[in-house]
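Example (one chain per record):
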Amino acid sequence: MAVEGDRVAGYATVAPGHIEIESLPAARRKRFPEYPLPILRLARLAVDRLFQGQGLGKQLLRFVLNLALQMAGNFGCVGVVVDAKPEAVSFYRQFGFIALDVVQRQPERLRFGARSPAGIRI
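Predicted structure:
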């Protein structure tokens, strides 16, 4: 959480999860075993309108990616996954996230994966 005075400027929430190997693009599947892969799910990343455009979203995302890096060493985390709203797609793409699939029951959202902490792009 980022706080400015008594105001929450932005925050990120995460949860451990897994991704099925079938969700990955075919070219990326051969690098991984045939069982669910541990990931860090970026559940929410938000920046107050007053603080948008100042790089706070990038700093929060950097924090999440560093957390995933720690989890890679401790738990074998292979990457970060986010279910992005359409207006957030370009934000995540600029940091190397790739579309994995459409989120079930929410066709307007795309599931994106980032470079894994070990440097393997999932």
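Caption: The radius of gyration is 15 Å.
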